[in-house]
Amino acid sequence: MKLGPTAMGLRFSPEPFFDRVPAMSEAGTPEKAPSLSPRPATEDDIPQILELEARVQSAGWREDHFRAEFQKGYSHFIVLTDDETDSKIAGFIVFWTLQDEGQILNIAVDIPFRGLGLGKKMIQLAVNQAAKAGGNRVILDVRKSNLPAIQLYQGQGFIITRTHRNFYSNGEDAYQMVLDLTQKDPLDPRSIDF
Ligand SMILES: CC(C)(COP(=O)(O)OP(=O)(O)OC[C@H]1O[C@@H](n2cnc3c(N)ncnc32)[C@H](O)[C@@H]1OP(=O)(O)O)[C@@H](O)C(=O)NCCC(=O)NCCS
User: Fold this and answer.
1) Which helix or strand (DSSP H or E) is residue 183 part of?
2) Which pTM was predicted?
3) CA 67 distance to own-chain centroid
4) Which of 45, 106, 137, 168 is the most exposed place for a label (fewest CB within 10 A)?
C-alpha cells in the first residue's frame, strides 16, 4: 500500500514524478520500463534497502543507521518503488530538513536504473523540501573518489566548500558540498514542483 504524501511530514504531491523509465537488463538492453514513484520508507523496506546498500556501497550504513532515521522527525527517508507492486526499490535517499539547512545523508540508485536521471530527481526532491522548510542551504559530504556523485551534485548547483581529511573509516577524505538556496540559482530549486 502506498503511503500518503503527508506520512513522515512530507509535503510533496502524491503524483508520480518519474515518467516511465527504460530500465536496463543485465545485458544492457532496455527492459519493460516500470513507472516509479517516491514514498516514505517503512520498516518493511529495510531488508531490500540493506541489499541495495550492500550492492552499491553508497554510504556504508548498517541496519541500525537506517532504522534510526525513522525516529527523527526531521528525517526524510524516501524510496523509489515500482507503481505496479510498490515492492521493488529502485533507489532511495535520506535527507534532513533542519531549521536553517537541508542535509543529504545518503542516496543510491540500483545499478539497472542508473543514468536515467533518478539520482538527479531525488536530489531535486530533497532540495525542494529543504527550500520549502525555509532552509538557506543544502549540505552534504561525499567521498573524494566518488566522481559520479560529485558530478551529480555539481550538476544541481552544489559547490565544493571544504575538504574533511580522513573523514571515512578507510582514511579517505570527504568533500563538503553546499548548495546556496539564497542565491538566484539557474536551477531555481524553489520552483521545482512535484
Ligand atoms: C551517484 C548515483 C546516485 C547517481 O544516480 P543516477 O540515477 O545514475 O544519476 P543520474 O542519472 O540522475 O545522473 C545525473 C548526473 O550525475 C552524473 N553521473 C551519474 N552517473 C555518472 C557516472 N557514472 N560518471 C560520471 N557522472 C555521472 C552526471 O553528471 C549526470 O548528469 P548527465 O546525465 O547530464 O551526464 C548512483 O551512481 C549511485 O547510486 N551510486 C552509488 C551510491 C553513491 O555513491 N551514493 C552517493 C554517496 S552517499
Assistant:
1) none
2) 0.85
3) 16
4) 168
> CB within 6 Å of ligand 1 — which residues?
56, 58-59, 106-109, 114-120, 142, 146-149, 151-152, 155
Cell of 73: 522527525
82, 35 in Cβ contact below 8 A?
A: yes
CA 9 centroid distance within chain: 16
Spatial CB neighbours of 173, under 8 Å, sequence gap ≥ 6: 143, 144, 163, 164, 165, 166, 167
Amino acid, res. 16: P
On the CB side of 76, CA atoms within 13 Å amount to 29
pLDDT digits over 105-127, tens only?
A: 999 999 999 999 999 999 999 99
Nearest residue (CA) to ligand 1, atom 16: 152
Distance in angstroms (rounded) separating the CA atoms of residues 79 and 45: 8
